[in-house]
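Hi all, long-time lurker, first post. I run a small reading group and we've been trying to get comfortable going from sequence to structure in the token notation. Rather than ask abstract questions, I figured I'd post a concrete chain and ask someone more experienced to write out its structure so we can walk through it together at our next meeting. Sequence below, copied exactly:
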Amino acid sequence: LDLTGEKRVEFLRDRKGAIVALEPITGSVIGNLPDLKVISKYGVGLNNIDQEALKARGIRLGWTGGVNARSVSELTLAFALGIFRNVFITSRLLSSGQWKNEGGCQLSGKTIGIIGCGFIGKDLIRLLSPFGCKVLIHDLIEMHSFCRDHGCSQVSKKELLKASDLVTVHVPYEPATHHLIGTVELDQMKKGAVLINTSRGDIVDEVALIQALSSGKLMGSAADVFATEPLLDSPLMQLANFFGTPHIGGSSAEAILAMGTAAIENLANCFAPT
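-- Answer (accepted) --
Happy to help. Here is the structure in token form:
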């Protein structure tokens, strides 16, 4: 079902409530829906919804944070293990008839830097616990108590980048996080480090990332998200040390069920009598 442009407005016209996923709900769309009372979000990212326009119209927003956190944190862990243990490269080679017995290195004991310690970052720390990693976090919110309870350290972004064997990004996309990881930040990372992005594409400068991977500055990188989606052709995909997936991070079967249930419940709750 194609609901782009005017078709989206027509589909939602006269509706009092709607469940949306990744469809842009702009101020223009909202302005053409005078009967709309509630938007319920399927998923957790809100960057496709003009929240200021909702507030101006008094339209309620139904949203449940962290509902797909385990799905994304598991993919992040899979990327980390796959890169460090050389799973992805040797699998590609074996498929092409090359037997290359190179087992990489272990994730255990590595220093892991987590930029953005919300629902997903916190869950990733729990998953990393058996690996005995040193975990550094960078977040705008002071997290002393959490760090004390989970054996991690909160540091500046620069300290995290310089010390980490692997950096993984888990922040929402907004103007302040556009190209949060760019040329300067990649230069600050350890030579031979790994970068993972399962948040939003434009948080990492893809041009700068290509340079860092091509020059050998980074050992490898993985991303589930891209500046342009769907991504069907990119120089990134031509690099032997880059590994991508088509935005599947929050889409495990369990997460899909949880997101759908939450969206329906939020819509129903907004219309429930008080």
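A couple of things your group might point at:
Residues 35 and 208 are 45 Å apart (CA to CA).
Strands lie at 17-20, 38-41, 60-62, 111-115, 134-138, 153-154, 166-169, 193-197, 218-223, 242-244.
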